Amino acid sequence: MKRLTLTRFMIEEQRRSGVLRPELRLLIETVARACKTISHAVGKGALGEVLGSLGSENVQGEVQKKLDVIANELLLEANEWGGHLAAMASEEMEAIHRIPNRYPKGEYLLLFDPIDGSSNIDVGLSVGTIFSVLKAPADASGRDIVEQDFMQPGTSQVAAGYAIYGPQTILVLTLGTGVYEFTLDREVGSWQMTDGPLQLPAGTCEFAVNTARHEQWSPAVRRYLDERLAGVNGPCGKDYNMRWTASMVADVHRILKRGGIFLYPADHRTAGKARLRLMYEANPMAFLIEQAGGAATNGVERILDVQPRGLHERVGVILGDRTEVETVTAYGSVSV
Ligand code: FDP
């Protein structure tokens, strides 16, 4: 079967919509190429001596895995010299990374979580890379990029996606004109379109949530989940399934393909303390989910409308099937 490659898809998109600029296309190609290298490292596992922790902590106070650091370096190195970027920001780095003066600079800002779902690395389960692309503000031309230039709501994203390193290596991408899935042909080394435009299936009775956090949820989130756990005898009148991979990329990918809802609400007892990062996780995933016909909120407002206050800001996340997300959000969650 003849399939569309990622390169051809983007060139055709560039011609068709006129919205996709060649610089953005080349930037996405570079990110996708780095994801191939990360996939290779992940695939080697213990044989590549890439498993385990480093003993260091990232800006979030989390222990860094070797692969977190390797993937971060690969993304920085691959994207530094192409001339499409003004700066980068990563979940693994406290400060923004400006493009060094020895390279030409472009107008885009790249944000990424190099390895998402790190607790899965050492046990051979799915992990992924999440990325988001913004445009530098118009007044940033000719001066150094500062952190404030990244403080744009998710609605400003011009592209977002993730790579998932699982049984297959898959890249899921949106340029704001639908969501497309590409599978890595490992022998040839090319990304081939295997699905899209993706439409999130409605009415799937499945939720993804870490139920061990039950006591930390707001009354609204507890009500929503307790009703579903009550199954066929509860107010929903049907049995639900629970799926939790502890890797947001894997859980969101399943929801994009099969439907259902993902929840990582904030801890209501500590004034909105949440786990997932707005800029590296919530925004790109919300963009993808909305482009596939779903919805994403922090329990109160649409994630893409949240005005960021800091690079590493955390946010409650409820995303997936539009009807389900609207139901839990209407219960009055305080999951900000
Ligand atoms: P991780 O920190 O292991 O990289 O990014 C946060 C995240 O993974 C998500 O991918 C995942 O959904 C969540 O943490 C898992 O959280 P729990 O440990 O509470 O299950």
Q: What's this, in brief?
A:
The chain has 336 residues and is of the alpha+beta class.
Number of domains: 2
Computed Rg: 19 Å
Helix content: 25-40%
Mean pLDDT: 93
Task: Profile the largest sheet.
Answer: 8 strands, mixed
CATH architecture of the largest domain: 2-Layer Sandwich
Order of helices and strands: HHEEHEEEEEEEEEHEHEEHEEEH
The SS-based structural class is alpha+beta
Pfam family, one: FBPase
Organism: Croceibacterium mercuriale
GO biological process, one term: gluconeogenesis
Binding site for substrate: 116-119, 210
Could you characterize the architecture of this molecule?
This protein has 336 residues and is α+β, with helices and mostly antiparallel strands. The protein has two domains: 6-195, 2-Layer Sandwich (Fructose-1,6-Bisphosphatase, Chain A, domain 1), CATH 3.30.540.10; 206-330, D-Maltodextrin-Binding Protein, domain 2 (3-Layer(aba) Sandwich), CATH 3.40.190.80. Helices cover 28% and strands 24% of the residues. The protein has seven helices and 17 strands. The chain has helices at 6-17, 22-44, 66-80, 219-229, 248-258, 278-291, 322-330; strands at residues 53-57, 63-65, 85-90, 97-98, 108-116, 127-135, 159-165, 169-174, 179-185, 190-195, 206-208, 241-242, 261-264, 276-277, 295-297, 314-315, 317-320. The strands form four sheets. Strands 4-3-5-6-7-8-9-10 form an eight-stranded mixed sheet, with helices on both faces. A hairpin with a 4-residue loop joins strand 9 (179-185) and strand 10. Helix 2 runs antiparallel to helix 3. The radius of gyration is 19 Å and the shape is globular. It starts with 5 loop residues before the first helix and ends in a 6-residue tail after the last helix. The mean pLDDT is 93. The site of 2,6-di-O-phosphono-beta-D-fructofuranose has 12 residues, from loops.
